Every structure is written in C-alpha cells, then in structure tokens.
C-alpha cells in the first residue's frame, strides 16, 4: 500500500455545499440515497471523484437524469461533468450487520450507529471523504418503528412522521457546514436522560444522554459532566454552544473512546456509564474528561476543522489541552498534572523512542487510523501547553480568541494556529515550530556548580535530540524550563521561579547572591515534555521531595530517586533502599499533604518506565528489583501503611476530591501491605473486597489479591465474576486485572482466558481488556520463550480479519524488539514477519508491523 504525503496536499477540485441523505434503514440491507450539489473549485478541468468502500452501487444520476458513463478508478467513483455546478444523486446498498470493522454504519447491541472519523463516511455513501470538503447536511431516516423507535442525526430535529407499514421517519438538519467525518446517525431502542443548559447569551439547549433502558440510572455523572463542560468552555475560552440540542449516545462496540460528531456525540459506553457499584474513581474521572473532550471539539474540531489529516493534532492536541485544563479545575490541579505526565511517559515516550515515532504533524502515512496516537494527542497537548507558558495566560487567551474568530467555519492547519499565537502575542515562534516537525523526546542535561566564595551558582544546560526513523539529525528546539534554586542547608527558596527558554544547543545561567549550596529544581510543573538528565544526588532528590514548593517537582524528585535506585538494582543488583524508604516515610508523615498527592508520590515507577531507562531491558531483573523495593517499603514502613490504610474516613461513597484521595491512598497502602508479605494481608484485602460499597475499593482489593497466591484470590475472582456476569464493562475489569497480574503464571492464565466463553475479539473493549493489558505487562508479555509474542501475534492476525483498526492499535508492544536482548528480539521479529506475511492483511496492521521491522 502506498504512503500519502503531506507535501502532496491539493485543495479539492469540487466543493459540495449541500448534501441531502436519505436512509432506508435495515441491519441487513440499508439503502442510502445521497443528493449532492457540487461546484467546481477554481478552473481546473477535473472530473468529480467520490470515495467509496464496500458499497454496492445501485444508480447514479446527474441533474436528475440517470447516467451510466461513470467509472470506478480504484475505490473512487469518477464522473466527468460538463459544467461548473451540478446535482449528483447516488443510491447504494450497505449491510450494517456485517460491518465488523465498526467504521461506517454498523450494528451494536441491536441498534444502528455510525463512526466516520477518519474515513468511515465512504463506507456509507460515495463522497469526497476528506476533511476540507464542508457541507450542510439534511438527513432523513426511515426505519421500523418497533425495532428502532429512536432516530437521531446531527443538528436539530426538524420533522418526524409515520411512514406506514410499521415504519416511521425523522428529519434532521445541521446548519453548520461540516466535513463528512463528523456525520452521525443512530437508530435504536434507547432511553434518555434529559437535561437543559442555558448558555450565557440565554439560549436553552436540550441535552440528552441516550442508553439502553437498563443503563439509564448510570447516566447522571455524564450528564453532570456535560453541563460543567459547557459552562467551563464559556468561562475559560469564551465558547458558547451553537445548536438547540446536544445528544450523546452510548454504544458497547466502539473502536476507541468517543466521537465528537456535530450535536450527536457517540461514545464507547465505558466513558458514559457509571455508578459507585460498577465504576471506579478512575472511571468517573475518565468519563468527565472524555465528555468534556468531545464537547470541547465543538469549537476545536467542528467549527474549526482540519485541512487534512496531517493536521490532526490541530484539533486533538488542542482539545486534550483543553480537557486537561477542565479536569484540573474540578479537583487537584497538581494531581491531574502528575497523572497526565505519567500517561505521557507510559504511552508517548516509548512511541517517540521506537520504530513508530512520528512528528506531531506527520509527513506521511499509509493508514490514517494508525495516527491517532499519544504523540498526536498527548505530546500535541504539551506543545499547546508550552505555547501557553511562553505567552502567559492573557496573551494565550487573546491568541485562542483570534484563532476561533479567524478560522471559524474553515478547515485550518497547525501553522494557522501557531500564527495566531504569534500575532496575538508579538512573540516569534519560528524556532518553536520545530516541535511540530521533529519527532523524538528531547533530553536536557542539567548541572549546577556553586562558588561559595563568590556566592555564585552556575547552571549548565545542554539539549540533545535523539534520532528517530527518517530523522537522523535534528536542530535545537526551544525548550521552556521553569527553574528555581533551593538552599541545601536552610531548605528555603534562594530565587523566584524563572522561565528559561533553552534555545541553543547549550546554555549557562549565572545566579548571584547564592550564599548556601543550591539545589536545582528544574522543569517544574513539567514545563516541557523532555527528559532531564541531572547528576543530582540521592540526598538532593530527597531534599527536593521534602522542600520543593512545586508539587510536580516534588513528585518528580521522588520518582527520580526511586528510578535511580531501581535502575541501579536492576543493573547491578545493588539494593540500597534507605534513601527511598526515608523519603516515602517523610511523605507519609507529612500532615500538610493532600492524600491524593501522597498516593501518587509514594507509588513506584512502573516496570515499563524503569525498563525505558535501560539500554537493554531485562524484564525479570526489573520486576525483581521493583518487588524487592516494594517489599522493603512494605515491611519497614508497616505501621505507616496501616495508618494510611485506616485513615480513610468511613461513610458512604462520595465522588469528591477528598474522598477520592483517601480511597487512592488506601489502595496504594494495601498494595504495600500485601507486598510486605504480612500474614493478614490477604484477609485484609478480602474483607475490603467484601465490605466495599464501591468499585474503587473493590477493584483495588481484587488487584492486590490477583497479584498473590492466597486462597482468597480464586474466591474473590469468582465472586466478582458472578456478581457482574451481566455487566460487560465490569467483566472487562475482570479480564484486565488478571492480565495485569504480577504472578508467574499470568501468561498461561491469559491464554486460558482467551478461550473463556466471555472472551471475544468482536468487542474492542473486551479485546483490549485482555490483549492490551497483557501487552502492557512487561514481564509476562516478554516471557523468555516467546510464548507471549506468539500469543499476541496469533490474536492480532485473527482480530485483523474482523477489525483492523483495533488490531493495529494493540500491536506496538511487539515492535519494541530493539530494546531487548538478541533472543527476545529475534522472537519478536519472527512474529512481526509472520504478521506481515499473512495473506489479506489490512493496511492498518501492515503499516504498523512493517514499520516495526525496519
Ligand atoms: N476524534 C475521535 C477519534 C477518532 C479516531 C478515529 N480512528 C475522538 C476524539 O479524539 O475525540
Ligand atoms: Zn479528540
């Protein structure tokens, strides 16, 4: 398959100002009639080209007259048109109930729904399926009234009626021109939780969360989050909602989290449904964040869309940045920042360091679905954050106002966004643009020297840009680093916080009046998405963990201390745990700290993140080093873990920042108690498991048990399974918890679970709950005999036949062979080669696997 290149972008030859779509809906055979008004763009003498995939073409007419001199060129329907404006009508037949890819129109749980981003609309009808063709949509849906009592589409409802023969119809109009990827319809038997939102200019918007009748009691949190999001976007970005209705539909079969279709968001049910008994605090947070994210897309994505898919981060990076800001404002901003950085390090740093590394604005792709990545989303958000930091809050807001105003109703580029940042602030972002074009995680070496006699501190910084595929050499970036110095003797701040823009390959900062030995706090708040290589001693890191006034820097010092300790242990078997134990003890004992922060700060870095620090990952050594430190911490701070465990106030479940923090700390403490090998640990976990009135505690207890071999383990897993046998989202947790287990037999257990009657590759959540979790389990997946690799490859080959997008998303753990010893590397490569050689392989999986072999 051929690569598509950014440099080849050409504006569309034809515009489609209006489209009228008529759906005669039936799961086995749906007839789609599309009437397009088309207008020549410019003077070029180009035929009209309409994309189509898996469509059975029935008729084509031009200006009301059936024609047969159309032709197919590959997947495109090509029509030569004499004039500059015409009306084209096509009629096609599609089979939603055989659509296992879940792109286009498909069936889920007896209902019909759509997913069009990026290129699913062409699986519904023939159309120029590219984001820079914006049209006004008029949609008519006709369906069986008993099976599909609810008929929804984008925009506002305009009419509905009876169609006879037990069928009915509804018409929807979306007055805002939009690209085809934002089209959506839903037909089904759904219940609704309705709400209202009055915008700041006084318009009343009807809100609806649509789910199966049985799930209606679990929609309140999502509806509440939607209202909060609508208010937040008005207050923080001055963005008001624009239609009279805003609907969200939850479906069980969905390739990713959710989709921002104009006025009709469609969600993976896991990001809508919540009640204390079935959803964890993490789920509640994620629901609010995704509801906000999709809502915010109404401006950053829908009103202003992307010119081409290379600009994807224009909407995704910015919208992630916006949803991160929203979540930070709902609770602890410090803890939110820590979670986001942990996510970036878990997903994006490895991507940037591996064979699939790509810039935030890529230059080419084979299959665009493969580019919905942590780089586009999360690193993209970090780019926006850096610009916000460099501009300051007022200029940043002026710049986003300018952007929204200038590009409203258009398909824009990343360059357009950066240009607005420059224009509104007067700040030159010429060098900053490299963040969009250069892949890889920058590293900054930082050291500090002190001349006690002169009272002078000298900070030396040097940046390094590691090579990535296709980019062997890179230019220096502009790296915004927030810095502050603290006095090692007194513990007080010696300077104010300073924002230093590192633009050159190396720089020196001299600070005078430094009368005691300074300790460097750098990249505070994670002001740049880089790795800091500093030679700070364990003592200095422990000092910062105690005294730094920036909560992120404090957390970071603790993480670095743990990481240094664990890396030394994994490489040299040297296990000096004292500094970590002291720092954790101090943190636990500090009454001024928020329990949610404490829980984050005392958690050890993941095995994967420790592995990322090593030239060659030894998964067993990493695991044992980490377990040894966990056990030691568990034993030596036994009393403190017990008090932390007991400190959580009793009382019924409440989803408040304070209660969440206590539950989080309780789960972390339980993990350490279990790690200590205490005789009563399993009993403690089991009694929490049984008495918990919420899923957060119950799942925390189950995870602690799942890692061990106490008799309570099986019992808890069985109880959990039986209790939630009819709840797919909770069963996903059951699969996932076992696949993440640190037990020696996890590989075998996972292979058995793949044969479990409740396991299916047809449901993406279920596939991810087992295969995604297993791929993330560094030690189990990387079993030295290659059994983990073989298993994943078998599953991916099977999944690819059903759902290429989801298969491709689960592949990256197999591509990390360069990071492992020659035996493992050879075993991984053999599986990648087997995948690439599979007949009928999708473009999606081919691109991921073949690039991973290079
Ligand atoms: N824009 C969608 C993602 C579509 C993914 C297509 N493979 C959801 C989001 O980012 O909000
Ligand atoms: Zn998005």
Question: Can you walk me through this structure?
Answer:
Among the domains are: 4-189, Sandwich (Immunoglobulin-like); 305-437, Orthogonal Bundle (Neutral Protease, domain 2); 443-528, Immunoglobulin-like, CATH 2.60.40; 724-854, Peptidase M1, alanyl aminopeptidase, C-terminal domain (Zincin-like fold, Alpha Horseshoe), CATH 1.25.50.10. The two termini are 16 Å apart. The protein has an 8-stranded mixed beta sheet with strand order 6-5-9-3-2-12-15-14, with no helix packed on it. It has a 5-stranded mixed beta sheet with strand order 17-18-19-21-20, covered by helices on one side. The longest helix has 22 residues, at 551-572. It has 854 residues and is an alpha+beta fold. The chain has 27 helices and 31 strands. Strand 14 and strand 15 (167-178) form a beta hairpin. The mean pLDDT is 98. Helix 16 (657-675) packs parallel to helix 18 (695-706) and helix 17 (681-691) packs antiparallel against helix 18 (695-706). Helices cover 41% and strands 22% of the residues. (3S)-3,7-diaminoheptanoic acid (B3K) is lined by residues 117-118, 256, 258-260, 293-294, 297, 316, 369, 372. (3S)-3,7-diaminoheptanoic acid is lined by residues 117-118, 256, 258-260, 293-294, 297, 316, 369, 372. Aminopeptidase N is involved in the degradation of intracellular peptides generated by protein breakdown during normal growth as well as in response to nutrient starvation. One of its GO terms (biological process) is proteolysis.
């Amino acid at each position: 398959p051929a690569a598509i290149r950014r440099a080849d972008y050409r504006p569309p030859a034809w515009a489609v100002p209006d489209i009228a779509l008529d759906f005669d809906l039936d799961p086995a055979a749906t007839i789609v009639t599309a009437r397009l008004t088309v207008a020549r763009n410019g003077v070029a003498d180009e035929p009209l080209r309409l994309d189509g995939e898996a469509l059975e073409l029935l008729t084509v007419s031009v200006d009301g007259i059936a024609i047969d001199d159309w032709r197919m060129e590959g997947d495109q329907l090509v029509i030569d048109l004499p004039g500059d404006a015409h009306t084209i009508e096509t009629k096609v037949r599609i089979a939603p109930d055989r659509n296992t890819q879940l792109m286009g129109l498909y069936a889920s749980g007896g209902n019909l729904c759509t997913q069009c981003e990026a290129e699913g609309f062409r699986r519904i009808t023939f159309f120029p399926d590219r984001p820079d063709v914006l049209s006004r949509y008029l949609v008519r849906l006709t369906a069986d009234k008993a099976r599909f009592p609810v008929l929804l589409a984008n925009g506002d409802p305009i009419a509905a009626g009876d169609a006879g023969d037990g069928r009915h119809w509804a018409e929807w109009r979306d007055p805002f021109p939009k690209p085809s990827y934002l089209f959506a319809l839903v037909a089904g038997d759904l219940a609704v939780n309705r709400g209202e939102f009055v915008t700041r200019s006084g318009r009343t918007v009807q809100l609806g969360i649509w789910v199966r009748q049985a799930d209606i009691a679990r929609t309140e949190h999502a509806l509440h989050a939607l209202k909060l999001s609508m208010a937040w976007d008005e207050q923080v970005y001055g963005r008001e909602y624009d239609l009279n209705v805003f609907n969200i539909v939850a479906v069980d079969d969905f390739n990713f989290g959710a989709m921002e279709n104009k006025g009709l968001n469609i969600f993976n049910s896991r990001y809508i449904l919540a009640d204390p008994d079935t959803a964890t605090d993490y789920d509640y947070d994620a629901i609010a964040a995704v509801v906000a994210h999709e809502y915010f897309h109404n401006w950053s994505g829908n009103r202003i869309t992307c010119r081409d898919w290379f600009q994807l981060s224009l909407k995704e990076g910015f919208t992630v940045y916006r949803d991160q800001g929203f979540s930070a404002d709902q609770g602890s901003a410090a803890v939110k920042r820590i979670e986001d950085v942990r996510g970036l390090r878990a997903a994006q740093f490895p991507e940037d360091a591996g064979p699939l590394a790509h810039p935030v604005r890529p230059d080419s792709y084979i299959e665009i679905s493969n580019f919905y990545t942590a780089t586009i989303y999360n690193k993209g958000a970090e780019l926006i954050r850096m610009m916000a930091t460099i501009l300051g809050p007022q200029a940043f807001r002026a710049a986003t106002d300018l952007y929204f105003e200038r590009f409203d109703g258009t398909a824009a580029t990343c360059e357009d966004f950066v240009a607005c940042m420059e224009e509104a602030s007067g700040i030159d972002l010429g060098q900053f643009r490299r963040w969009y074009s250069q892949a890889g995680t920058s590293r900054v070496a930082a050291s500090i020297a002190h001349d006690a006699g002169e009272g002078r501190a000298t900070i030396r910084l040097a940046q390094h840009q590691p090579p990535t595929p296709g980019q062997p050499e890179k230019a220096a970036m502009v790296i915004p680093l927030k810095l502050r110095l603290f006095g090692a003797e007194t513990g007080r701040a010696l300077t104010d916080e300073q924002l230093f823009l590192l633009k050159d390959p190396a720089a020196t900062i001299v600070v005078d009046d430094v009368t005691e030995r300074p300790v460097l706090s750098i990249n505070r708040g994670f002001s740049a998405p880089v790795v800091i290589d500093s030679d700070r001693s364990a003592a200095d890191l422990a000092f910062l963990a105690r005294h730094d006034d920036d909560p992120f820097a404090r957390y970071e010092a603790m993480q670095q201390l743990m990481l240094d300790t664990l890396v030394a242990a994994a490489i040299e078997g040297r296990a000096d745990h004292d500094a970590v134990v002291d720092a954790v003890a101090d943190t636990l004992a500090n009454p001024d700290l928020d329990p949610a922060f404490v829980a984050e700060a005392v958690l050890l870095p993941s095995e994967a993140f420790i592995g990322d620090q090593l030239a060659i990952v030894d998964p067993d050594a990493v695991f044992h080093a980490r377990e040894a430190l966990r056990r030691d911490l568990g034993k030596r701070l036994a009393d403190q873990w017990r008090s932390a465990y007991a400190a959580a106030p009793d009382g019924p479940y409440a989803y408040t920042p304070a209660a969440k923090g206590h539950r989080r700390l309780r789960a972390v403490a339980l993990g350490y108690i279990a790690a200590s090998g205490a005789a009563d640990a399993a009993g403690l976990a089991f009694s929490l498991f049984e008495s918990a009135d919420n899923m957060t505690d119950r799942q925390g207890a189950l995870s602690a048990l799942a890692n061990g071999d106490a008799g309570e383990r099986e019992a808890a897993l069985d109880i959990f399974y039986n209790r939630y046998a009819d709840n797919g989202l909770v069963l996903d947790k059951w699969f996932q918890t076992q696949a993440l287990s640190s037990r020696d037999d996890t590989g075998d257990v996972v292979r058995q679970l793949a044969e479990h009657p409740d396991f299916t590759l047809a449901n993406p959540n279920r596939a991810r709950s087992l295969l995604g979790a297993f791929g993330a389990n560094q030690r189990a997946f990387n079993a030295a005999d290659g059994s983990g690799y073989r298993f994943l490859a078998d599953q991916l080959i099977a999944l690819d036949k059903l759902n290429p997008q989801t298969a491709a998303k689960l592949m990256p753990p197999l591509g990390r062979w360069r990071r492992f010893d020659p035996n493992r590397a050879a075993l991984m490569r053999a599986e990648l080669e087997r995948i690439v050689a599979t007949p009928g392989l999708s473009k999606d999986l081919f691109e991921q696997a073949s690039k991973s072999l290079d």
